[in-house]
Design brief:
The complex is a heterodimer of chains A (115) and B (114). With 115 residues, chain A is an all-beta fold. Chain A contains no helices and 11 strands. In chain B, strand 7 and strand 8 form a beta hairpin. Chain B starts with a strand and ends with a strand. The chains are: A mainly beta (115), B mainly beta (114).
Chain lengths: 115, 114
């Protein structure tokens, strides 16, 4: 599992409340990612980071923000949660800097329900 | 728009039988293609990764093939086991873009019955 943990693993919240999900890695990998997975869709990239304080948007970034103040932690924040953000969220890391050979390792996921 | 389509959506087979899952993609420029296995309630786990120059790669009972000309890939599972029950996801990486821009298929749900 490349030393990836996510917290919390499950969360139920109400519409309009802020939510922060944490991804923690123990192996100092440079690249980290946040995905969401929904029925009928493949995994979709929300944001990714290529270093401390260096982040970029993915294809479904609206309504989400991220921060990476330390190599080991990548935080995903829903500023004001909506029911459409009910999903399973996966964090991932890349083990190499090579576009050709990198393998992404995924965390166990966080199941978020917004009521 | 980059797309990855997988077929069938779901498949049921008996333990010990072989099966083949398909992946068609329209990702350009192509960098590599990966197959992941995702058990229920867990994150995806990488099975194989193939670059443009590779047309087959094996990982135990899993063999992936790639035809870059027709933009098709297949994942063949030999002598299936109950533990093979999972979702299998085809993922294509577009070269020349920002790092991490992968296109995921929706997955094929495989169920292996005893």
């Amino acid at each position: 599992d490349a030393g990836i943990t996510q917290s919390p693993r499950h969360k139920v919240t109400e519409t309009g409340t802020p939510v922060t999900l944490r991804c923690h890695q123990t192996e100092n990998h440079r690249y980290m990612y946040w995905y969401r997975q929904d029925p009928g869709h493949g995994l979709r990239l929300i944001h990714y980071s290529y270093g401390v304080k260096d982040t970029d948007k993915g294809e479904v970034s609206d309504g989400y923000s991220v921060s990476r103040s330390k190599t080991e932690d990548f935080l995903l924040t829903l500023e004001s949660a909506t029911s459409s953000q009910t999903s399973v969220y996966f964090c991932a890391i890349s083990t190499t800097d090579s576009l050709l050979t990198d393998t992404q390792y995924f965390g166990p996921g966080t199941r978020l329900t917004v009521l | 728009k980059n797309q990855v389509e997988q077929s069938p959506q779901s498949l049921i087979i008996l333990e010990g039988k072989n099966c083949t899952l398909q992946c068609n993609y329209t990702v350009s420029p192509f960098s590599n293609l990966r197959w992941y296995k995702q058990d229920t309630g867990r994150g995806p786990v990488s099975l194989t990764i193939m670059t443009f120059s590779e047309n087959t790669k094996s990982n135990g009972r899993y063999t992936a093939t790639l035809d870059a000309d027709t933009k098709q890939s297949s994942l063949h599972i030999t002598a299936s086991q109950l533990s093979d029950s999972a979702s299998y996801i085809c993922v294509v990486s577009a070269g020349g873009t920002s790092y991490g821009k992968l296109t995921f298929g929706q997955g094929t749900i495989l169920t292996v019955h005893p």
